[in-house]
């Protein structure tokens, strides 16, 4: 856990705009000042959720995508800590752990060129190194009986989320992914487009549902793989929102039937959300409200085991809006998950 940078109180005080008569979320969340044994510390804490950042975009680079997801965590945490703590948002159930520091890997990737095949191979090796740290942290959190909430970062980290959870639970898990893409690309070295295929090939992922795929961006071979494997299923954005052959509520039910019988992780790739700055930003996609409804639905399920939000690109100008969007999603998850009704 040598890459873990704790989010301490002085850092948090610096970010919170305190107002008299109000309690901000960040004034009530739990933080750690130091830690010698992370597992023991987590186990002894009276919190349900452990929030952490994955500030990296090495996986996106290694998938020939547009970088920028490495900056999102810092925008999110600033906005989240300044939301209200009230009967709807119970911050004392949340440990803001900190982030994994991938500065070294990020630095190395800036020296690489995406059009050089050898350098892409090197970037993919760096992603495999990142995986190990994510797996280690996630398995420790789940082993300690807590629910991880990870803010990325690239979608490559779905692999670490799934493997870490699966190792802790000692069985393969399922996954529901709101995404324009399956991220089930070939096992060609690790990157942001094959987190799920690697997790499946290595038997950490059992049943996978890709929700709202874009028909323009899913290859014929991946569609055929999904159509011929009962563990893999999907619906498309076009079927739901354009042709309206499938009602949103029914789509949620079908996906729940596929993943909900055992533990599953919830993945939200921000490139599925309309006009949100991301590595593959889309002018056609689910609204923020539909995304929140999706999240509420799955977070309410008793088998939901983690939340991973990724691929948003927070820059100086749009950072506060991205931070606000992801803060809505984090608080929706906690609110709905804490009052599981399935
Ligand atoms: N995590 C994203 N995966 C997409 C990226 C698409 C893009 O960058 O255009 C994929 O590999 O298909």
From TrEMBL:
Transmembrane segments: none annotated. CDD domains: Formimidoylglutamase (cd09988). InterPro entries: Ureohydrolase (IPR006035), Ureohydrolase_dom_sf (IPR023696). The keyword Glycosyltransferase does not apply. Keywords: Histidine metabolism, Hydrolase, Manganese, Metal-binding. PANTHER family: ARGINASE/AGMATINASE (PTHR11358), FORMIMIDOYLGLUTAMASE (PTHR11358:SF35). Belongs to the arginase family. This is Formimidoylglutamase. It comes from Olleya sediminilitoris.
């Amino acid at each position: 856990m040598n890459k873990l940078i704790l989010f301490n109180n002085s850092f948090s005080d610096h970010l919170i705009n305190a107002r008299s008569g109000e309690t901000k979320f960040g004034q009530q969340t739990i933080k750690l000042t130091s830690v010698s044994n992370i597992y023991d510390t987590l186990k002894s804490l009276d919190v349900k959720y452990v929030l952490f950042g994955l500030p990296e975009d090495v996986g996106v680079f290694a998938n020939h995508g547009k970088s920028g997801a490495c900056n999102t965590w810092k925008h999110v945490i600033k906005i989240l800590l300044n939301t209200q703590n009230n009967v709807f948002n119970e911050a004392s159930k949340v440990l803001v752990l900190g982030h994994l520091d991938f500065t070294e890997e990020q630095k190395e990737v800036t020296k690489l060129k995406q059009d050089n095949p050898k350098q892409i191979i090197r970037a993919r090796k760096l992603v495999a190194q990142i995986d190990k740290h994510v797996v280690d942290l996630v398995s420790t959190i789940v082993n300690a009986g807590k629910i991880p909430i990870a803010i990325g970062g690239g979608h490559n980290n779905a692999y670490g989320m799934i493997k870490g959870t699966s190792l802790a639970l000692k069985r393969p898990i399922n996954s529901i992914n709101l995404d324009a893409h399956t991220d089930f690309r070939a096992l060609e070295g690790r990157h942001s487009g094959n987190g799920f295929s690697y997790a499946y090939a290595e038997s950490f992922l059992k049943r996978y549902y890709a929700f709202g795929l874009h028909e323009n961006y899913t290859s014929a071979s991946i569609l055929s793989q999904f159509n011929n494997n009962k563990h893999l299923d999907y619906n498309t954005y076009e079927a739901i929102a354009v042709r309206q052959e499938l009602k949103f509520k029914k789509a949620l039910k079908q996906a729940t039937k596929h993943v909900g019988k055992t533990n599953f992780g919830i993945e939200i790739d921000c490139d599925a959300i309309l006009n949100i700055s991301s590595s593959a930003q889309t002018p056609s996609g689910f609204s923020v409200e539909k995304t929140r409804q999706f999240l509420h639905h799955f977070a309410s399920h008793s088998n939901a085991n983690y939340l991973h939000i990724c691929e948003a690109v927070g820059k100086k100008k749009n950072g506060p809006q991205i931070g606000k969007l992801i803060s809505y999603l984090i608080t929706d998850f906690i609110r709905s998950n804490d009052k599981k009704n399935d």
